[in-house]
Specification:
The protein is built from 2 helices and 4 strands. By secondary structure, the protein is α+β, with helices and mostly antiparallel strands. Strands 2-1-3-4 form a 4-stranded antiparallel β-sheet, covered by helices on one side. Strand 1 and strand 2 form a beta hairpin. The protein is globular, with a radius of gyration of 13 Å. The protein starts with a strand and ends with a helix.
Length: 78
């Protein structure tokens, strides 16, 4: 079984990208946010969240903020 994460654009209600690990999703979300700020004036951003595919309920669920924060800390300290 493969764990699947995705970055979801909550403003436009569409998925942005899919990833196999939380670490990869956090890195991609950071790159996406930087590209939005770089290519648009002012304090532009698109609100996103990282979601996990729940096989048992056959739906996407939001990853708890604590898990995302732990992955970000690992990414920044690596």
């Amino acid at each position: 079984m493969t764990t699947k994460y995705r970055i979801y654009d909550t403003f436009n209600r569409r998925p942005i990208s899919n990833h196999r690990t939380l670490k990869a999703a956090v890195i991609a979300e950071d790159k996406f946010s930087r590209s939005i700020r770089r290519n648009n004036p002012g304090n532009s951003y698109i609100p996103t969240r990282i979601e996990l595919w729940d096989v048992e309920f056959d739906e996407w669920v939001e990853v708890p903020v604590e898990d995302v924060h732990d992955a970000e800390q690992w990414y920044l300290n690596a």
